[in-house]
Amino acid sequence: MIELSPYALRLALYLALMLLFGRMLFIRPAPARRIFLPLAVIALAVVLLDAAVRVTGVLGLPLAAVDQATVAWFTTATPVGEAALVRALALLAMLPLLAASAKVAAARRVILLPLSAVALASLAWNGHAAAGDGIRGALRLAAGTVHLLAAGAWVGAIAAVLHLALRTQGPSLRERTHELWQVAHGFALPGTVIVALLAMTGTYTYVDLQGSLQTLFNTAHGRWLLFKLALVAGMLGLAALHRWRLVPALATAIRGGWQFRPLRSLRHSLTFEAALGLLVLACVAVLGTLDPLA
Q: What is this structure's pTM?
């Protein structure tokens, strides 16, 4: 039987780190204390909780029995612990920069963005992406890292555009809608690049792990992967709907006689896309624990 708590923890870990990186990547500087600082604090809390669960699981000890020597061994002598340490240090380094000012200035963002990328990329240091040696292992790790960063960019962009679509404070509704249109319209090219990177790195990794059509249909990993791909296909369909219909309709509503319906339709579609994205991450949380060939 599937244990829910480990999968939920993995889902929270992926979601927090992807939101932090993706929001930092695409949206212009925003109030730090309102968006990025809480995200960084939540991400750090999840990272520490994940590390605690892993070390107690490896040693079969209760959390109260874990001492300083155990923590030192875990973070310096195990690949999982080393990755968790780098993850935590990257997030800790972000906190004073985010708390120092109400705004994420451009100079701070130059430092914050690589730190958030390192925290997210460190998830690839364990599991399937790190299962290899030599050049082949390096290529697999690189593909896994790029796949994670591209996925984080997509998740963060969806969250950012949805936030703009749902916000009720600030300028007038028409001005907020115009800003939403600018951001959604400007995401067309980056979105295409992200999808291409996800497709190429995902295909390469699966083939490199000796995946085939047979394992795709006849293994638990393959069936979960098919479910994930079906969800991603749904997200791509919605992204196409946004680009070719809903966003142009929003522009028409802004230029011509104002109508609320295009904005409402885009809100609903973005909410549905975000829900599909959450299900995709849930699949990723399960896939990371399964053998691709079994």
A: 0.89
